[in-house]
């Protein structure tokens, strides 16, 4: 497939699109299916690359995976589960961050796990120290093996009491996926509470898990000896919804996003309204539009849920280049998530990056030489440019910038965007974008 796209901007995106299941839940629910001794059915599954990567990893372990793109129904039959060939696992190195979550389920079901080196967006160091600490506490023996890790559990996995120093999404999922079948009781404090995690907990409960969530970011899990398949409908991808909403704002457009769910987007909708966007929530989805007039600047800080999500930050920054005044964005989740602004500056935006924390939220990056705050001065007309996509959300943000810019831009490396945006080329065409 051609990996670059020519975008002629300067016209509003208008029309209707549908967003299906969440990349950051579907991939985890697919891993959870490994815990079940019977077939699992996942619905509302989008046709994105991360689903293909996890399907392939499951197949390497003997899972019979069947996906009907049209209906979005994915079934996973785990009756012939078996250890995978290490050489074949290695071919998945760098493909996604999901493989590290296979550890607990594979240790429970097969007694060993071989994990390739992780991929995912390069938006910071992204260590896995929390994951390994949790797995070792449960009783896993972790050794480095070639291009990845080898894990075993000679004495089985036993419940633990753990507190995260930061409410990491992946580490919370690691603990849940391991604790559900570990012997005895597990408790976790300072857990992540993103909607995708709540959906994972619901899925695990359907499978037979006993999980009690408290109101203070803590959870108690009573391990069970056997789990079964599930039937579950994925929540909608709130990051994709927010990305299209920002595209409507930046291009002066009007986009009806079918499938969008208000209850998972509270903080985003507040910000969208404060910046000057309009939205209508309907039973079918949410319609986002630029109502005309100037957009307003804003000061925001990204945070764990229920704060403003880091994955919304990059698309929003493009819209903020069109707001009248100074906007401030303090990124507190990743230390290096403003690299994508170089291309915006090349297109005429005024974005100044700072090492200091430009906000009062507790942040791990303040005194550590990371440019993790941005001041955006607008409105600045954007002009076409040749751009290389840096990462998933940064890439979609570049597309939005090209759609808002006068002239024809070339955006290279758009394959990355397929990791998390289903049929984005068709959706752009449906919204009247001029793309080749
Ligand atoms: C596939 C998936 O669901 N990806 C999402 C997930 O990523 P992911 O699960 O990787 O993100 P985490 O919540 O774990 O990371 C948050 C912070 O914790 C740090 N950390 C994490 C693990 C660890 O072992 N040590 C450590 O220091 C990270 O470097 C980062 O600074 O949540 C992020 C935060 O909402 C989202 O941006 C990603 O889209
Ligand atoms: C950072 C992201 O994903 P991943 O964790 O898969 O790299 C994202 O979806 O924006």
TrEMBL record:
UDP-N-acetyl-alpha-D-glucosamine binds at residues 97, 311, 333. Pathway: Cell wall biogenesis; peptidoglycan biosynthesis. Residues 7-428 form the Enolpyruvate transferase domain. Keywords: Cell cycle, Cell division, Cell shape, Cell wall biogenesis/degradation, Cytoplasm, Peptidoglycan synthesis, Pyruvate, Transferase. GO terms for cellular component: cytoplasm. Its EC number is 2.5.1.7. The keyword Cell division applies. The keyword Cell wall biogenesis/degradation applies. GO terms for molecular function: UDP-N-acetylglucosamine 1-carboxyvinyltransferase activity. It is found in: Cytoplasm. It holds the Pfam family EPSP_synthase. It catalyses: phosphoenolpyruvate + UDP-N-acetyl-alpha-D-glucosamine = UDP-N-acetyl-3-O-(1-carboxyvinyl)-alpha-D-glucosamine + phosphate. The modification 2-(S-cysteinyl)pyruvic acid O-phosphothioketal is found at residue 121. It is an enzyme of class 2 (transferase). SUPFAM superfamilies: EPT/RTPC-like. Signal peptide: none annotated. Its main location: cytoplasm. The active site is at residue 121. InterPro entries: Enolpyruvate_Tfrase_dom, Enolpyruvate_Tfrase_sf, MurA_subfamily, RNA3'P_cycl/enolpyr_Trfase_a/b, UDP_GlcNAc_COvinyl_MurA. One of its GO terms (biological process) is regulation of cell shape. Cell wall formation. Adds enolpyruvyl to UDP-N-acetylglucosamine. Belongs to the EPSP synthase family. MurA subfamily. This is UDP-N-acetylglucosamine 1-carboxyvinyltransferase. The gene is murA.
